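Protein modeling request. Please complete all fields; requests missing the sequence field cannot be processed.
Requester role: graduate student
Desired output: 3D structure, token encoding
Chains: 1
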Amino acid sequence: MLTTVMVTAAVLGVAEVVRDWLILRQVRAAMDAGSAEDRVRIGMRLAEALGGGQGVEAAGQVPEQPGGEVVRSRP
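Delivered output (75 residues):
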């Protein structure tokens, strides 16, 4: 029973590390491919996701739609 718990914990730990590595690889690729404004935007979102920095709403700014999309209501 103890062995099963230890193996499960190890597998979950490895899975989390792999997931984090894949996310960071995508963030790095986006940072390398983007403009200076894109890098700032990505950095701000990453800081929010990691729990650091101010939220966009707290800074008094209007949040941007993902991917720079503009959403307008139909008349």
